Structures are given as C-alpha cells and as structure tokens.
Amino acid sequence: MQYDRAKQIVASPDEFEVSYNGVSVWIDKIHDDGKTATVHLRKSLEERSEVAIGELKEEPLPLQ
C-alpha cells in the first residue's frame, strides 16, 4: 500500500478491508516517518504492532 492511500483510509469515516500478512487489521496510526503504521488485529484491540506501510494490502470488501 502507498503512504497516501493509508492516510486516506485512516482519515475516512468509511470502512475498508486492510490486511497484513493475510490477516485482517485496522490501521490505528500512520507514523511521521511515512514508512510505518501501527495496526491491530480486528479481533484483538490489545495486540498492536508497528508494520511497514508497504506490507499493508487493501482488500476488496465482501459483497453484501
């Protein structure tokens, strides 16, 4: 994922499907270095990780 897209997702009131290593995550914060973000698993609010933005992937939303 590109830095600008990650910032758009964080700022948007809409919901997006984002994954990290095939696992669904929420982006909590984009870091000032422009290269990393803090994310947490959608199922676990306590477990946060700092990851490279380039390793995040936007997934298509499931059809409803």
Structure description:
With 64 residues, the protein is mostly beta strands. The chain contains one helix and five strands. The protein has one helix at residues 3-11, and strands spanning 17-20, 23-30, 36-41, 48-52, 56-59. A five-stranded antiparallel sheet has the order 4-3-2-1-5. The radius of gyration is 11 Å and the shape is globular. The N and C termini lie far apart (25 Å). 14% of the residues are buried.
Q: Based on the coordinates given, report the CATH architecture.
A: Roll
The helix-and-strand class reads: mainly beta
Can you tell me the CATH class? Answer: Mainly Beta
Radius of gyration: 11 Å
How are the strands of the biggest sheet laid out side by side?
Answer: 4-3-2-1-5
Total E-strand runs: 5
Strand content: 35-45%
Please count the helical segments. 1
What sort of overall outline do the alpha carbons produce when their principal axes are compared? globular
Low-confidence stretches: none
User: Can you tell me the CATH topology?
Assistant: SH3 type barrels
**Total domain units:** 1
SSE string, helices as H and strands as E: HEEEEE
| Major sheet details | 5 strands, antiparallel
Helical content band: 10-25%
The gist of it:
With 64 residues, this protein is mainly beta. It has 1 helix and 5 strands.
